[in-house]
Design goal:
Elements: E1 11-16, E2 22-34, H1 41-52, E3 54-58, H2 77-80, E4 85-86, H3 99-115, E5 119-123, H4 127-135, H5 145-151, H6 156-166, H7 168-173, H8 179-192, E6 205-212, H9 216-232, H10 235-252, H11 256-265, H12 274-294, E7 302-304
Parallel strand pairs: 2-5, 2-6, 3-4, 3-5, 6-7
Antiparallel strand pairs: 1-2
Helix pairs in contact: 3-4, 6-8, 9-12, 10-11, 11-12
């Protein structure tokens, strides 16, 4: 394990132009904490922030939304333990928040936190956001309105099936419930055949990774315990409130918990089916997250189990 390190000023990296003039490039130190759902990323991020003097930037595409608390297992003020957290509760659920929005906000926050002499700690389970920040967003393919109109008529499961058939690698990186990203992937596949792999860009960040890699059986038990707790704390009532505010179409875009409970509220499934159905689907999602994590090959990666 790499020993803990205190936050230092950005490092200076030098290179020379053709004229021989030395240019200075500042490389900003950041800590990224990733792991599958229910692995304990949030608590680990708080521990590292307290130990190293950091502030936490949430890398979660749903915790940006107000009112999505139980379903997203949003960290509570008590659990934050006085550590500043960013990009939580910054949008209403009727609004969209894109990977591009995240890159803009995270870049600004990293600079602000670094300027305060603190360590920016990025923690969460939306791996597409990590990719977008560190490797850049896919570009070069224009939107296809006619294709989008056709794809919008399809169920989300069919969209994911089509992405997986066209580009299994890209499918493994995507949230199977995120219609916007699935449709965008299909637009690119239509033109390119596959979604191009983004080359690792020359990053301005000196990135250290902590991967919270919980053993398989323990993770399955943690998912089940988390779901049981969420249902006991009022998940159904929360989904009912969100549904009343945003409608069923938008509700289905807000993640598995909201989609499945929404089916119950519409009379499409029984209450008794909620826990086993959510458990099976979240376990499948966690396995896909673990597959993405295995692809990380950073020099500073730490592999360890959740506390």
């Amino acid at each position: 394990m790499i020993p803990s390190r205190a936050m230092t000023a950005p490092q200076e990296h030098f290179h020379f132009t053709n004229a021989g003039n030395r240019e200075v490039k500042l490389v900003v130190q950041i800590l990224c904490i990733a792991g599958p759902t229910a692995s304990g990323k949030s608590s680990r991020a708080v521990e590292e922030a307290l130990k190293r003097g950091g502030e936490i930037i949430s890398v979660d595409s749903r915790q940006v939304y107000r009112g999505l608390d139980i379903g997203t297992e949003k960290i509570t003020p008590e659990e934050m333990r006085g550590v500043p957290h960013h990009l939580i509760d910054i949008r209403n659920p009727q609004e969209n928040y894109s990977a591009g929005d995240f890159v803009t906000d995270a870049t600004r926050l990293i600079n602000e936190i670094t300027a305060r002499g603190k360590l920016p700690i990025l923690a969460g389970g939306t791996h597409f956001y990590f990719n977008a920040l560190l490797s850049g967003l896919p570009t070069g393919i224009d939107a296809n309105p006619a294709l989008r109109e056709e794809l919008e008529k399809l169920p989300t499961e069919e969209l994911f099936t089509r992405v997986r058939a066209g580009d299994a690698r890209r499918a493994a990186e995507l949230d199977p419930m995120n219609r916007r990203r699935l449709i965008r992937a299909l637009e690119i596949i239509e033109v390119k055949g596959k979604v191009p792999v983004r080359a690792k860009s020359s990053s301005i960040y000196d990135t250290e990774w902590i991967i919270v890699d919980t053993p398989r059986e323990e993770l399955r038990a943690r998912i089940d315990a988390r779901l049981a707790g969420a249902l006991a704390r009022g998940l159904v009532d929360e989904v009912r409130r969100v549904r009343e505010a945003v409608g069923d179409t938008r509700l289905n875009e807000l993640g598995l918990e909201y989609k499945i409970v929404g089916e119950y509220l519409r009379g499409e499934r029984t209450e008794a089916s909620l826990l086993p159905t959510l458990s099976a689907k979240l376990w499948h999602y966690a396995r896909r997250q673990k597959a993405w994590l295995r692809k990380l090959h950073e020099e500073n990666t730490i592999i360890e189990a959740a506390p």
